[in-house]
Task: inverse folding
């Protein structure tokens, strides 16, 4: 075999597919090309988009797959369908019909995504893949003959009378990517993009020393809270909970959380409240004390509160008790005393007999696991985790670093609209005597707006020293994500790459969380307008 034929064969073997039978067709077509005695033969993958037949040189074609499910990305070009997970890698999926201005159509059994790698793998949706053809270089013509009737900027040549087609247009995908994603080239030159943060004014510790930051939640229509420093994360109820035989009724069982066993206790049962089935609103608040952790099941998680210490009172002496009922240590008074929130002490919680029993059970199981597998479970917990608050906009999940969140509050029934306020500001609210500008994050990201609902929340960030609230559809959980699952997001536009430069690809959970950098939510010009508004 000549070196040319060997190179051609290696190129044909790059194409793989998840579709039974299609790989054989492609390989057979490639073999037919190899049989050619002409060493100047080039291989092309041909496909249909709209009513046109196109071809692409086989070299950059990695594989051909069915169109996968995608996650929609705000601030991306309109031709982007979304991001897909392809064997643990994030793959942008792009519609060729939209790029060429063809009429939209529903996907069918013939629709495919051609994965092309020219510096970055991209999947291009085509109506149908036709075949792999071999063409002599001498039969590839220039595009001058059709330049008067067709936009030839994205074409590198024409193939005539091959594969049963009178004319096949050879697409130059390098030009196509440069034209459709023109801003990418400039953005990708910034090698420090993932770690670049806008300079912001640090919070003065003295200014917040008289406040408590609490995570509030509901159990049996009663509101409770815990200090945010005691809350490791907030996760959803898993599908599988391992039940512990002969355990107290308070102990729900044990779940696996990132290769560690986490005991679960039910706060309703601990407080002798009526039981109920868990639902979509139920959450597990992971509470830590030293090296121990326990998951406490709540009916729902409400918000993150900043409460002045002057509004917090110790539990009245007649009600305070030691032992199993001494978990509630303080009461905070909000809205001039109309809203009372019971503060649960992590120290007291870990002294509860049900929690002690659950922790003992886990320690026993971990000891058995260590002896059987010679694994040091401490090695599985490290500083290689990032803690993010996950929220939803429409069907997509987004995350922000937990230390960037000042607080999370309900959306008031009415926002005060300020005359001559910037158009991106929905209104302002009075947050403990301070004017808080509120922005609809959907509108900020170019997404359709929706009517207000009880699930919506205002997430408050400190951006360049200015507290600003953003309305989100709902706050889902506080999640610890191992850094190995976080990767640079595909650069799709300058604004998207700056605001959402990273994403968490949770392959086992079939989730992708787009990570937002709050410092970039407002540009300098808009920030100046906000400062004037709050003055």
Result:
């Amino acid at each position: 075999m000549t070196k040319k034929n060997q190179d051609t064969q290696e190129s044909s073997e790059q194409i793989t597919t998840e579709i039974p039978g299609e790989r054989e067709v492609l390989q057979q077509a490639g073999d037919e090309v190899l049989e050619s005695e002409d060493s100047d033969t080039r291989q092309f993958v041909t496909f249909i988009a709209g009513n046109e037949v196109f071809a692409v040189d086989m070299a950059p074609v990695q594989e051909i797959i069915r169109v996968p499910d995608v996650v929609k990305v705000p601030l991306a070009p309109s031709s982007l369908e979304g991001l897909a997970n392809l064997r643990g890698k994030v793959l942008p999926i792009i519609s060729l019909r939209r790029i060429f201005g063809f009429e939209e159509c529903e996907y069918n059994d013939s629709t495919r995504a051609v994965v092309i790698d020219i510096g970055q793998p991209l999947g291009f949706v085509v109506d149908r893949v036709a075949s792999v053809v071999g063409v002599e270089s001498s039969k590839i013509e220039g595009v001058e003959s059709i330049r008067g009737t067709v936009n030839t900027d994205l074409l590198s040549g024409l193939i005539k009378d091959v594969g049963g087609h009178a004319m096949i247009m050879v697409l130059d995908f390098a030009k196509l990517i440069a034209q459709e994603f023109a801003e990418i080239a400039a953005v990708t030159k910034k090698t420090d993009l993932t770690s670049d943060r806008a300079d912001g004014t640090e919070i003065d510790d003295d200014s917040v020393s008289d406040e408590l930051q609490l995570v509030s939640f509901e159990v049996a229509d009663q509101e409770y809270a815990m200090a945010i420093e005691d809350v490791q994360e907030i996760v959803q109820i898993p599908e599988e909970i391992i039940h512990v035989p002969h355990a107290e009724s308070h102990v729900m069982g044990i779940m696996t959380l990132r290769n560690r066993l986490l005991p679960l206790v039910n706060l309703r049962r601990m407080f002798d409240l009526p039981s109920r089935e868990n639902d979509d609103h139920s959450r597990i608040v992971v509470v830590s004390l030293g090296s121990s952790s326990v998951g406490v099941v709540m009916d729902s998680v409400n918000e993150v509160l900043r409460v002045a210490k002057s509004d917090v009172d110790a539990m009245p002496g007649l009600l305070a008790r030691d032992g199993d009922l001494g978990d509630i240590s303080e009461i905070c008074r909000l809205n001039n005393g109309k809203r009372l929130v019971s503060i649960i002490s992590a120290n007291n919680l870990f002294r509860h007999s049900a929690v002690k029993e659950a922790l003992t059970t886990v320690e026993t199981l971990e000891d058995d696991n260590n002896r059987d597998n010679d694994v040091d479970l401490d090695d599985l917990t490290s500083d290689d985790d990032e803690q993010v608050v996950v929220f939803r906009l429409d069907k997509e999940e987004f995350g922000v670093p937990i230390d960037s969140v000042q607080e999370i509050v309900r959306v008031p029934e009415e926002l005060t609209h300020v005359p001559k306020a910037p158009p991106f500001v929905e209104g302002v609210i009075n947050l403990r005597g301070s004017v808080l500008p509120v922005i609809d994050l959907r509108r900020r990201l170019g997404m359709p707006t929706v009517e207000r609902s009880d699930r919506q929340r205002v997430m408050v960030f400190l951006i360049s020293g200015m507290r600003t609230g953003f309305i989100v559809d709902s706050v889902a959980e506080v999640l610890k994500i191992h850094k190995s699952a976080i990767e640079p997001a595909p650069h799709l536009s300058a604004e998207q790459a700056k605001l959402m430069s990273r994403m968490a690809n949770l392959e086992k959970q079939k989730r992708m969380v787009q990570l937002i950098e709050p410092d970039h939510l407002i540009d300098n010009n808009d920030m100046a307008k906000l400062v004037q508004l709050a003055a």
